[in-house]
Amino acid sequence: MGSPAPTLVELEADNPVLPLPEAPLGFDFAVGDLKTKPDPERVRLGRWLFFDPLLSADGTVACATCHRPENGFSEPTPVSTGIDGQKGGRKAPSFVNAAYAFYPETFWDGRAASLEEQAKGPIINPIEMGTTHEAVVAAVAAIPNYRHFFAKAFGDDQVSIDRIAHAIADYERTRVSGNSPYDQWIDADDEEQGYVSPMTSEQILGHDLFFGKALCATCHVGAAFTDSQYHNLGIGYDEQTGEMADLGRAAISGDEADTGAFKTPGLREVTLHAPYMHDGSLETLFEVMKHYMIGGTDNPWLSPKMKEVRLTGIELNALVAFMHALEGTGWQDTAPVHLPR
Q: Are residues 145 and 198 part of one domain?
């Protein structure tokens, strides 16, 4: 016999309703100020759903299977693994600070118009969660404790795929990272008596390079360090066939100019996301820096923003050190002890 289902009291104690996070140092507004403002009850419900493998065909894959908290809600593998051990073609991108993106589209190719739409996609992808929206709704609705919390989040206990996606998206919107050494450094008064820099001299050099001759800020802009645009960096280009392994944004936009272009990822908590790029083909941040230094891999669709930059080994290490200065707080989480059953 299995363990008894957790009671409502146990569920409430394990996953209480929390206030929405305040604006973290480094950002001008809080998630509660968003046009699509999260609701604390929906966030709590979405947290359960995010970590629940009930949303997959065989009960083995949850959103958190690929978007792992310990990896900054990315994953430590080149590509994602779905039901029956099936491998996808891309690495799961992090959604930390997605609430602050310049544009709402998600996935590496921008095929989902919102976090809600994104949450629905993997459920019906045959190599990810491999089920149907109808099956997921039926499975969740069959659990009285889930219906209890749907009523708290939405006003009645009706379960629908739109409500499931809305709750998951609201949870994801609360994963915000700020208050990093970089933010503290920007905010500090370096003329104050007894001032101690929160960044090392190496990280400060990396900062100057990042916003200067290394040209990183050409695409990694704003408080979230992403322009939310799509660029071809030459990753996945086969020089012998003259083809990209993955069409990227072009498969969605239908524009050949978007061939091999992928969305610029944010850089907060990037140190937890190895391996890197949409296909996980670069193992370390140092390798990523070297790829940018040579101007990417030349191909017919290479972004004009990719330029060869001469950097020394000391400068490359300084840029990597600056990435560590973007490690913040406020986004961390662990799986709930109990799930509604």
A: no
